[in-house]
Write a structure and sequence with these properties.
517 residues, alpha/beta, Rossmann fold, 2 domains, 7-stranded mixed β-sheet, 6-stranded parallel β-sheet, globular
Length: 517
């Protein structure tokens, strides 16, 4: 089979793909990788890998990420023969919509929709040409593609029904997802329906069983860092936020004036603005940072101080944006205003919607976040009578425990909820959506039905059974791999680095052989 590999940015990916190619005798005709500056691990391993592939396939097309990020490079795509038709443009409208939204990550200074569409059209045509001209049959990715250019390539492959193998994270300790599709499969209603909990427990391998209710090492560490960064609502909160702003501004200016003292940067936050001067880049960051801090101050003001967790409520923990968990995994619900409006219109009488902003949304190191929230967002939702904003410092687990259920686009709060015997409404392609203690929402009507059904789950055993069925179904169908899926997480796994890579290769080979049938 002839493959494309995109978003290659980590050593383990290269080692896995090298072994996969040697095991299966497959061919690769297109590779899209990061630059050396942003590569995780030993970059020389990738260079050797690339050199060996070019020996076997001299026509291999290899592109670095910078060739798709900056306008000076993108204009070269006009030289590619035009292969897109009018019917293609209409059929690909869903790709156009999301890719143009994803461009917010790379344009700190907003650019017009017309200009974005021009970039999209050039990339769309180029990728279709690459796929057709090289007879690409399959695609392997180690993460849901979430840059605007990678998303276009990925969605084109899906539309053309190419064979896809995708790795994705899971918060089971030691395990990741690996799929032969994009969307996570739903566990069939009849699957092990009459099997008892004790019987299900015996069917799940010991290590996997133990990880189900075990706190994720990575998640615990990540949440500790997020919590420390929160500026609590109070008399001095505005002062503290202004101090953080001034501190970060000063650091940005130093990095702009003396760039030679710091690690080389890609300046990807403003790549579509064609900013190459580091000082200008840092000045633009400071301007957007000011607006982000002001928004943090505004949120602290509108968040209700005295939250009554004895009220009847559905808890919504907002996603930090931009992140792949909402764009593109949130699909049409990447704008979370729609999710909250549907919940407010679907909730049982007397039920409130408690909305808590993500603690990292106002992080001064994540300036592109400014594009994804504004006063209009919060003020619009404040007009809905049963919507209540919760202070950033309020404990999310307490909110989960006291809620009637949890709603999220694809967030980890959903996994935390079902493992704490709370049902979940999801609006995107969450990694746990397959569990039948979860329902995928597409409208007010489906939301009302889902709430009614999920409220029938009463006991801890009801939830435990659904979680065990989900885990067992994914295990039996080879959707779980005992491995990390990010370079820095391999050391947290109970297996050695090379053993984890062997496990990844085994799954890649399994799905490769399955796709050939």
């Amino acid at each position: 089979m002839n493959y494309a590999f995109i978003d290659i940015a980590q050593e383990f990916q290269v080692l896995s793909l090298d072994k996969f190619l040697k095991t299966t005798g497959s061919k690769v005709s297109y590779i899209h990788s990061t630059s050396e500056v942003h590569f995780y691990g030993d970059f020389s391993i990738f260079e050797i890998f690339l050199k060996e592939i070019k020996k076997d396939n001299p026509t291999l097309v290899h592109k670095e990420v910078t060739e798709y990020l900056f306008l000076d490079n993108l204009k070269e795509l006009i030289k590619v023969p035009w292969v897109i038709s009018t019917s293609d443009l209409l059929n690909y409208k869903h790709i156009e919509s999301m890719s143009m939204r994803l461009m917010d990550r790379s344009s700190l200074i907003p650019i017009s929709g017309f200009s974005r569409r021009r970039i999209y059209l050039l990339l769309l045509n180029y990728f279709q040409y690459i796929i057709e001209n090289n007879n690409i049959e399959g695609l392997i990715v180690f993460d849901t593609p979430h840059s605007f250019h990678s998303h276009i390539f990925f969605e084109l492959c899906k539309y053309k029904k190419l064979k896809i193998i995708k790795m994705e994270y899971h918060f089971h300790n030691d395990y990741s997802l690996i799929l032969d599709r994009d969307l996570c499969p739903i566990v069939p209603k009849e699957y092990n329906q009459n099997t008892s909990i004790s019987e299900l427990e015996k069917l799940i391998p010991k290590g996997l069983f133990e990880s189900v209710y075990e706190n994720s090492k990575y998640l615990v560490s990540f949440k500790e860092k997020e919590t420390k960064a929160i500026v609590k609502k109070g008399i001095f909160s505005t002062f503290l936020l202004i101090f953080k702003y001034l501190d970060k501004c000063a650091k940005n200016l130093i990095m702009g004036v003396f760039p030679f003292l710091f690690k080389k940067e890609m300046l990807h936050f403003s790549s579509l603005n064609n900013i190459s001067n580091r000082l200008k880049y840092r000045l633009v960051l400071n301007g957007k940072l000011y607006k982000l801090v002001r928004l943090n101050i505004f949120y602290n003001k509108i968040a209700q101080k005295n939250i009554n967790i004895e009220d009847k409520f559905i808890f919504v923990g907002l996603h930090m944006q931009p992140e792949k968990t909402s764009q593109p995994m949130g699909e049409e619900y990447d704008n979370q205003l729609i999710m909250i409006k549907i919940l407010a219109d679907s909730a049982p009488e007397g039920c409130k919607i408690y909305v808590k902003e993500h603690p990292n949304q106002f992080n001064v190191k994540k300036v592109p976040n400014r594009h994804y929230r504004d006063k209009f967002f919060y003020e619009s939702l404040s007009e809905i009578k049963n919507v209540v904003f919760v202070p950033l410092e309020f404990d999310s687990l307490s909110l989960i425990d006291k809620s009637i259920m949890v709603a999220t686009v694809t967030g980890t709060s959903g996994w935390e909820a079902i493992t704490r015997s709370k049902a979940v409404l999801v609006f995107g392609n969450a990694y746990y959506v397959g569990c039948r203690a979860v329902r995928k929402i597409t409208s007010v009507e489906t939301c009302k039905i889902a709430i009614k059904e999920l409220l029938l789950l009463k006991s801890d055993d009801d939830f435990r059974k659904e979680i065990y069925k989900y885990v067992l179904y994914y295990y039996e169908n080879n959707f779980l791999v005992k491995s990390a899926n990010w370079h820095t997480l391999f050391k947290l796994n109970s297996l050695s680095y090379l053993s984890q890579i062997d496990n990844i290769v085994d799954k890649l080979v399994y799905f490769h052989n399955k796709n050939k049938i």
